Amino acid sequence: MSIKQKPLSEITEEDLWDLVHDKVIENKNIDYKKDVPGNADKDKKEFLADVSSFANAGGGDIIFGISEKSEDGLNTGFPEDVCGVTVNLDSLKLKLESSIRDGISPRIIGCQFQIVPLSSGTNVLIIRIPYSYQGPHAVTFSGTFRFYSRNSSGKYPLDVGELKSAFLNQSNIGDSIRQYNLERTSKIIAGETPCQLRKPPLIIVHFNPLDREENIDIVSLERSYTDHKLIYYTTGNWRFNIDGLLVQSINKDGVYLAYTQVFRNGIVEGVTEMPSVHTSGTIAIYAIQNKLIDFIKHYLSVIEKYGKSYPIQVSIKFYGMKELNINLTRFDEMDGDHSFDRDLIVLPDVLINDDDDRPMPIKLRPCFDALWQAAGWPGAKNYDAEGNWTSEPR
User: How many angstroms separate the first and last alpha carbons of the chain?
Assistant: First the structure.
C-alpha cells in the first residue's frame, strides 16, 4: 500500500523510511521538504503554490522532514534521509492552516495535518491536500494572483488554455454527481438492488465524496465491519460483492428490509423500508428525521476514516410517498390534510465540509424543510424562531 492510500493517522516512521529504501521519487502526488517554510514572503508564496498545485491536480502529500539526494548541487527528487524537523509543530500547524485559509482563493476544504514522531526525537509533518472540486484555486497572498497545477516533475503555473479547461471541468462535476444519483435511484425503484427489498415506501441516502480518484481498501472494510450500519434496522449480515461491501438486514421470514452498499470509490448508498408508517397512512416524521441525522453523522465519519476527504455531498430521496400524510402527533389525530402528491420526493443536496461545526440538524435543514413542504407545510416544525433544532414540533 502506498503512503497516499494509508489514512494519515496510521502512517509511521517505518512508512517514511520505506519511501527512502524504495527510492520513491517526488511525483504528482508527493513532495519532500527538508525544512519547514520560513517567514519571508517568498517562502510563504512558495508554500501556497505547492498546496494549491496539489488541490488543482489530484491531491497529494507534502512531507516536511525528509531530505532529497542532490547531484551537482541540484535536487534529484529521490528521498535521502528521514531527518525530521525540530520546530514546534503544533504552533507551525496553526500558522500554516491560517496561511492556507487566508492566502488561497477559493478556500481549500479538507487539508489534513499529521505529526509523525521519530525515534531520533524529532518529528515529521505531513500535510495531505485533497483534490478540490471547488477550484481551480489561486495563490492570492501579498498581491499575488497565480494558478498552479502539478505533473510528474512538480508544480508549474497554469497557462490560459489550461486554466479555461480547469474551470470547465469543475462545472461538470455537479452534473456528474446528479446524474449518478439519478441512475442509482432509477435502479432502486426498478428493484435492481443488491438485495431485493420488500416494498415501498423507501428512504434512499447517497454519500458522494468528491474525492473519488483513489479506491478504498475493500479488505479493510471487512476488518471494520462494525463501522457499517443501516438507516433503521440492526445489521443482519454482510458480504463482498462486485461493487464493494454490502451490509443488509433480513427478518425471520427471509425478507430483506434494508441495506447499505459501500462502493469501492467511497460512495455509500443506504436504502431502507420505512417502518414508521401507520395503518392510517401517516408517517412518523420525527422518528424518520432523527434516524437520518444519526445515519448521516455516522457515515460521514466512516467515509473520512477510509481516507476520503471533504467535501461530501449528501443526497436524500423518498420513494412511494404519494397520498401518505405527515402526522404531527405521531399516531394520533391528523392536523388537516397534508399528503404528498407524488411518489418520488427528491430533497435538495447538501454539501458537508469538515470546517462547518454547526449541528447536523442545522446542516440538514434545507432537506427537512423541503420534505415538509412536499406535504404542504411551509417548513419543518423542528426549528424555533432562531433556527435552533428541537426533537419535537414547534
Answer: 52
84: which strand partners?
A: none
Question: Could you give the dihedral angle defined by the CA atoms of residues 356, 360, 365 and 370, in that order, rounded to the nearest 10 degrees?
Answer: 120
- Provide the β-strand partners of residue 339: 325
User: Would the CA dihedral through 216, 221, 224, 227 be positive or negative?
Assistant: positive
Q: What are phi and psi of 138, to 5 degrees?
A: -115, 145
> What residues form DSSP beta bridges with 241?
244
Grouping H, G, I as helix, E, B as strand and the rest as coil, residue 244 is strand
Which of 290, 291, 272, 279 lies closest to 202, judged by CA?
A: 272
* Cell numbers linked to 346: 427528491
Q: Is the dihedral of CA 195, 198, 199, 204 positive or negative?
A: negative
pTM of the model: 0.62
Residue pLDDT, tens place only, 292-324: 999 999 988 888 777 777 778 899 999 999 889
Instruction: Point out which residues pair with 237 in neighbouring strands.
Output: 248
CA distance 13 to 149: 29
C-alpha cell at 143: 498581491
Instruction: Check residue 291 and give left, alpha or beta (phi > 0: left; psi -120 to 50: alpha).
Output: alpha
Inter-residue contact 31 to 57 (CB < 8 Å): no
Contact at 8 Å (CB) between 138 and 132? no
- CB-CB contact of 228 with 260 (8 Å): yes
User: How far apart, in whole angstroms, are the C-alpha atoms of residue 19 and residue 83?
Assistant: 13
- pLDDT at res. 333: 44
Angle at 170 between CA 166 and CA 173, to 5 degrees: 140
Cell of 237: 449480515
